[in-house]
């Protein structure tokens, strides 16, 4: 029997477990609110050590205010992070209990150490890109678009799903309710246990990340881009997501709520971008061609 329901307030425990654990350091000891019960899954912490007879555990999606996670940063009050957490990492708390701040130094230090070997080459690449963009020879969107074509030839499947949702309101409703089943309606084989589709609106923007590894909806987006699996993106997308978006050429207004989804368990995510205003002017193929992988991860917003 599940212990929590949507709306319950919970604290993430700081268990002294070693080895393969599914809770990043930055979220431990934090207080959040359950948004969804995801179901029961085999504990990946058991599977990682060869214990295939391990017990099944309940999985929840839990939301945290970014201002609570990073109290020393200047962050719009409505920005949110949602992450998947297994039951044994959670404890119930009272409505009146105040959030407990903690030090994020360990998480950040590990990221800096892991990335050290790539810094010199990355500095050169970044400097060259900055010069080319500064001279008007390239735009940030052109750079990421070219990389996307090289790294993810399967993007058309995700674009096909989006266009179907844009042009068929009933399908859109099914997609938001059960992403996996709706994707399979289009005869797209899905290997992920569950696909959660999160919809952008004029008031809300979604961004997908995976801080622990590189969880990604490969069935519909192909292989993840190199930047998505980099330690830098995985750390910064939860700590300073608006700055990350700006580096992709997306300056998100503070009036728009930013929700970061940290995919660290059995869920996989797909962003449903807003359709272009002149949707009816284009054929289905033309619409699909306008959708990039960046739109479906959330580092791009407008489809033009």
Number of strands: 9
> Which parts are unreliable, with pLDDT below 50 for 5 consecutive residues or more?
100-120
Largest sheet: 7 strands, mixed
Query: Could you give the order of the helices and strands?
Result: EEHEHEEHHHHHHEEHHHHEEHH
Beta fraction? 15-25%
Let me know the average pLDDT. 85
Q: What is the CATH C level class of the largest domain, in words?
A: Alpha Beta
Distance between the termini: 47 Å
Overview of this protein structure:
This protein has two domains: 8-92, SH3 type barrels, CATH 2.30.30.50; 157-297, Nitrile Hydratase, Chain A (Alpha-Beta Complex), CATH 3.90.330. The radius of gyration is 20 Å and the shape is globular. The protein starts with 8 loop residues before the first strand and ends in a 7-residue tail after the last helix. The chain is of the alpha/beta class and 304 residues long. The chain has helices spanning 44-47, 66-69, 105-115, 119-134, 140-151, 155-167, 169-177, 179-185, 218-221, 226-229, 231-239, 241-247, 284-289, 293-297; strands at 9-12, 31-42, 56-65, 80-86, 90-92, 194-199, 204-209, 257-262, 267-272. The chain has 14 helices and nine strands. Helix content is 37%, strand content 20%. It has a seven-stranded mixed sheet. It has a two-stranded parallel ribbon with strand order 6-9. The relative contact order is 0.15.
Summarize the structure.
This protein has 304 residues and is an alpha/beta fold.
């Amino acid at each position: 029997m599940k212990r929590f329901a949507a709306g319950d307030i919970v604290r993430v425990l700081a268990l002294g477990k070693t080895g393969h654990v599914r809770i990043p350091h930055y979220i431990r000891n934090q207080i959040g609110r359950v948004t969804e019960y995801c179901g029961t899954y085999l504990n990946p912490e058991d599977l990682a050590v060869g214990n295939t007879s391990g017990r099944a555990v309940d999985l929840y999606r839990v939301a945290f205010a970014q201002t609570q996670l990073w109290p020393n940063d200047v962050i719009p009050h409505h920005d949110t992070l949602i992450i998947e957490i297994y039951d044994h990492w959670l404890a119930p708390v009272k409505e009146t209990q105040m959030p407990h701040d903690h030090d994020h130094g360990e998480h950040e230090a590990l990221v800096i150490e892991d990335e050290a070997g790539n810094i010199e080459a990355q500095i050169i690449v970044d400097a060259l890109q900055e010069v080319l963009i500064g001279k008007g020879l390239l735009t940030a969107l052109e750079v990421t678009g070219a990389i996307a074509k090289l790294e993810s030839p399967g993007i058309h499947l995700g674009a096909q799903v989006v266009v179907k949702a844009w042009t068929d309101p009933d399908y859109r409703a099914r997609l938001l309710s059960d992403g996996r089943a709706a994707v399979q309606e289009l005869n797209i084989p899905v290997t992920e246990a569950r696909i959660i589709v999160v919809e952008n609106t004029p008031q809300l923007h979604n961004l997908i990340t995976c801080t622990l590894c590189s969880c990604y909806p490969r069935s519909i987006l192909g292989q993840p881009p190199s930047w998505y699996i980099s330690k830098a993106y995985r750390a910064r997308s939860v700590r300073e997501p608006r700055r990350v978006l700006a580096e992709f050429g997306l300056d998100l207004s503070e009036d728009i709520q930013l929700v970061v989804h940290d995919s660290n368990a059995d869920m996989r995510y797909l962003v449903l971008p807003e359709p272009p205003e002149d949707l009816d002017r284009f054929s289905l193929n033309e619409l699909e061609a306008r959708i990039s992988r960046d739109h479906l991860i959330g580092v791009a917003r407008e489809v033009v």
